[in-house]
Amino acid sequence: MSKYTVTQSAVTQLLADVKSEKIAIPELQRPFVWDSVKVRDLMDSLYNGYPVGYLITWHSIGAYLKGGQVAAHQQILIDGQQRITALRAAVAGLPIVTKRYQQKRISIAFNPLTEEFATTTPFHRKDPEWISDISEFFNSSSPLGFARKYREANPEADEDVFERNLEKLAAIKSSQIGIIALADDLDVETVSEIFVRINSKGVPLSSADFAMSKIATYGDRGRNLRKLIDYFCHLAIAPHAISDIRANDHEFASSKYFSQIEWLKDDNQDIYDPAYHDVIRVAGLVGFQRGKIASVVAELSGRDPETRTTDESRIEPAFDKLEAALERIVRKYMFEKFVMLVKSIGFVRSNMINSTNAVNFAYALYLRLSEEGMHSAERDRIVKRWFALSLLTGRHSGSFESTWEQDMRRISEVGAAAYLEQLEASLLSDAFWTATLPQNLRTTSSSSPYFKVFLAAQVSGNAHGFLSKNIDVRAILEHSGDIHHVVPKAYLIKNGFDGRADANQVANYALTETAINIAISDAPPAEYMARINAQCSDGVLSLGEITDPGQLAANLEENAIPANFADFEIRDYEEFLEARRELMAAYIRRYYEGL
């Protein structure tokens, strides 16, 4: 049985169906992300008879439309909103909502003599050869009168050419656009899978986009929840946009939802700036204990997971759960405390965290344990360890959605503390620390999660930069200090080593002050370590400020440098890397066990 039907609709009929809500757009007020060039290209494609992609619609039970009606036989637009909005702007002359949430007109100009489209500028408004706003032509009550005025303004123009091209322009209103109507009886999981697989303008769609469309169908409440997610994510990155929301979305600004995120106007951290798909994933875990976004959509559609049938009475309670989860996610106290927790274990910069999924799950776990009333000290211990374990084992990569659901289920069955102990026993055995982790550190990627955890461990342990007496790793990270080759790269190349595969091993990296890095330059380790040892004897500074042998030994230890490094010779390089990987792994282990 076919899962969809394909039909064609003229542009004017399509816009009429949207206006009458035969095709329902869940949220016409979401910011228009296309620029005017894309609108121009869309009109040019329609003018030349080129395909412009398909719209995708689906009938959904319980969708609330403008005015409070519930969708019956209407088709809900789940992909194609940007194209519809572009047509409304260029053909109907209606305003769009910008990223700053301001209403704005996008005008497209057309030259009937050269058949060119352009974004309208003052030049096009002054030049009589151009129709400065094609929506005026499309909405003219007298096309013949419009042509007559053009002839009068351009008396030397070839009349046959511009009249032919004006007819061709008018034909855009009759241009056919394909509509893929998904079958009404498809279950949510299938619709979500179809949605994800279809590409729009070459951009892969995501299940989160589908979820956002579904959320927005639930009347004013759904539209506000969708805006709550959108605005929360936007303000987390651009706090100054608070004034744009106040000025341009009065309805939302006067709602209870706005007051829940207004605090972001003073937010200046970038450790965790979740995107809308992250928020939906966390909400799925917190509200429904579901890891798959498609499962969240199923809940919001009234899908009974046991009978796999749709029950309309389940929809409102599902939105209650979603709203309650979102309120916890965006709560200032909870969000800031969680970010502080992440920073407290050494992750002081956003680029130290290369797994957003690990952060998402840790935040969901933090919110869940807080809701259960667990003592804050025990909650924090569990969340910190879980987050570090996730980064070290890649637990939330790959098929992470199934893992998330499994983890939440096991936490419900045996408790978070007991389940964490089980994971530690199976994933972080002695073999992991002494064999697997050193092997994982055999990489040239400075963005490796294992190297990032090592740096976090150094921050947590208040370690100083390599050969630095006063400047710690935290300060170097926060002020973009240098990653130094412990054995200088040029020295290795000079001695026959590969400048990338050999020299750029993370076991050859250490953070240090720029001045120390410059002072070392390309000197062999034995040479620059001799300078350090000399100043430890006579106190005359030559490299850095360490003048005490005990300080030097402590510095090498906190940077996981072998104690006999001063005796290094070039033939020992591979042995040095192996020894340092083992020391880095041991350093990380002490860090983890101390969390």
TrEMBL record:
InterPro entries on file: GmrSD_N (IPR004919)
Domain spans labelled GmrSD restriction endonucleases N-terminal: 12-214
Protein's UniProt name: DUF262 domain-containing protein
Species of the source: Pseudoclavibacter albus
